[in-house]
Amino acid sequence: MVKCCLEPTQEAGRAFFQRGIAGPVVMLNLLRFRAVADYAANPELAPPAPISGAEAFDRYVAHTLPYLERSGGSLMFVGAGGPFLIGPMDECWDRVMLVRQSSVQSFLAFAQDAGYLAGLGHRTAALADSRLLPLVELPAQALG
Question: H helices of 8-129, where?
């Protein structure tokens, strides 16, 4: 069984930076929501009545977009997930997102912004599990 993943490990962070990515990076997000958002770690962000993990994640996205855009990033795609066509049949993701950043440095500045971090508790409350895969576009000649 795969362990739930909500934050990068130091080892994964080190490996990401050691890739030496120059230029834009696109983050593939696979997201699995809690049935009911868990605000235990951030009670100051909790709504007056319980909400779903999906609703908490929508609050996270609404909070995050201005910081993302100000850092040079953009939300390229958001879609409903489901079971794999090719992949483990018992693995299912509720939502998929593609987030583009102009550079690794811009991503880091965004991820460390105090304003952004103030709303990160909505993400924590929302997610039961996640995956984040940094993608780098291949040059056109690599495809031919």
Answer: 10-18, 53-70, 104-111, 114-117, 120-126
Q: Are 5 and 130 in contact (CB under 8 A)?
A: yes
Using DSSP, state whether 47 is helix, strand or coil. coil
**pLDDT tens per residue across span 89-125:** 889 999 999 999 999 999 999 999 999 999 999 999 9
The highest-level CATH class for domain 23-134 is alpha beta
User: Could you please report the per-residue DSSP string of 74-103?
Assistant: EEEEEEEEEE-SSS-TT-EEEEEEEEEES-
Neighbours of 9 (CB within 10 A): 9
pLDDT at position 31, please? 97
